Predict the structure.
Amino acid sequence: MSKEEGSFQVVKSARFTFIENNVLKVLFYIVLILAMALVCFVVGMMIGYSVLGDGNAFDVLDWKTWEYILKFLK
């Protein structure tokens, strides 16, 4: 028996690889866009709080600030 007769070759479908790569690319871009949007949102809050509100930029990340804002809105 030769090597070719007894061995099996696993062939991955080119179509499946194409779909798998596209799904991973799309998921990567979705996560990347959401992360960039979150960073832009936080930076925007910090700029708005420090410039318009005349406060410290890092106070916007403090939970006590958000408790005060939520109490004010109620």
Notes: The mean pLDDT is 82. The first helix runs from residue 3 to 6. Helices lie at 3-6, 14-52, 63-73.
